[in-house]
Amino acid sequence: MAQKRPPATVDALIVGAGFAGLYMLHCLQARGFSAHVIELADDVGGVWHWNRYPGARCDVPSLEYSYSFSDDLEQEWQWTEHYAGQAEILSYLRHVASRFDLRKDISFSTTVLAATFDESVQRWTVTTDRGDTISAQHCVMATGSLSATRLPDLPGIADFAGEIYHTGAWPHHDVAFSGKRVGIIGTGSSGVQAIPMVARAAGNLTVFQRTPNFVVPAHNGPIAADRRKDWQQNFRDYRARAKQVGTLYEFSATPAFAVSDDVRTSEYRRRWDKGGVNFMHAFSDLMTDRKANETAAAFVRDRIGEIVHDPLVAEQLCPRDYPIGTKRICVGSQYYETYNRDNVTLVNLRETPVTQISVDAISTGAATYPIDVLICATGYDALTGALARIDITGCEGERLADKWAAGPRNYLGLMSAGFPNLFIVTGPGSPSVLVNMVVGIEHHVEWIANCLTDLRDRAAASIVPLPQDEDGWVRHVNDEADKTLFPLANSWYLGANIPGKPRVFLPFVGGIGRYRAICDEAAQSGYAGFAIAPQKPRKDA
Ligand code: NAP
What we know:
Largest sheet: 8 strands, mixed
CATH topology of the largest domain: FAD/NAD(P)-binding domain
CATH class of the largest domain: Alpha Beta
Bound molecules: NADP nicotinamide-adenine-dinucleotide phosphate
CATH architecture of the largest domain: 3-Layer(bba) Sandwich
CATH superfamily of the largest domain: FAD/NAD(P)-binding domain
Radius of gyration: 24 Å
């Protein structure tokens, strides 16, 4: 099918047609801007287009992991499950694209190669792999926080001759597991979701685990009729509250040691039985006090010991060297139970690392495991990876990759000094992956759309953050992280999963409510912390 080509000139060029890019396009069109989206995939959806692995679903409740900007959309779309599966979320995004007539302004199957700022005209020149050159006043990177997939650099992996898949780039055809020997590397959120499903379908499954994760049960199911009715009647209140807190968990104001051991354990039990990330909000200090955190970690380890029959396997599954929640907590369905199956083997790579991958097997120091299908649930170059794949050059020829070589630097997570009119949605320095992504996306997109409108009203050519305000924000993001337990884990939040990536805590931990207030204040003050350049008078004026 012939692909729509982008126009030569637009007010705003948007990269990515996931939750962020679609809403950005809708907002800008509604305000009368010309805008166009470039998307690598052949359809909308972003991560939900690519993450089709067995068991893929979102562990934020579907009623909340959805747009809030349209009351009509809110009322007409009926989510079926408490935690929606990938196919349902993708259907939703396709529906949004059709309902708001967005596809006509999206070029699919197109990769943005470079974006270069031309100071003489205060515009971006964007080039693609299809030979397009687009001149845009503004450029919005809606490229996703967890979209740049990463295969493990294990010895011999390139020699493997069987089927090999990354969970974040899953094929669109059915993958048959029946009777096959399947290996899976990685036990983060994606691996935890895939493992039980693959174990049921495969001849046998070998799980290669480097670091065990804390997994709380999902207890997923259909949305109860009374819950749906309550949401439809009160969605405005719920959405307003979500703008302040992200996801509507039961947040506690009580520290863990303010209650007796019995009360604490029964609160963990209640939340465990209810399911989901809500578990991590049982007490107010779980992410700031190591001892408080350990009470929650010990509760989960006890559950692992109860569920997993083989005590040696149970022990291998118990995380012991980082606080619970400092690596993204996983939400699973029958995850630990899966290790009781006869066709599932757990290999602890800490004890016996992979020594070689051959054409048809993975060897550790202790054994060789024949493999027909290898699944890499090995994660992403988070928050900065997708941006790094585009050659972005700002003022005075400075490349963003060079500027960020020692860690990302930006103001409010939204813009980087020296790169005027370049906006980032849910990138580093914003709450992004620490809150409900859709809430963060809607905030950023609306802030950016308001900013572009203000610039148009002032007849301004460009906006760019001031270096000293950017330095202050980078310090603030780090200071906030240092008040928590987050830096104690080797997590992708810190870039620790990518060899050579600078160790910088990437997201802003201060919460979406505070962040929203800071961004609002910046806009209402007439963009304090930013420099705004007027349009140059036309020669013929
Ligand atoms: P991840 O959390 O980064 O997990 C990657 C896994 O692969 C880890 O267990 C890691 O071990 C392992 N690994 C990486 N390189 C390895 C190597 N060379 N050898 C052995 N093991 C290796 O990635 P993910 O599971 O795709 O999840 C990423 C994020 O996406 C999640 O944290 C979450 O925010 C999001 N996500 C969300 C959902 C949802 O339900 N909302 C679902 C899926 C993903 P180490 O821990 O030792 O590095």
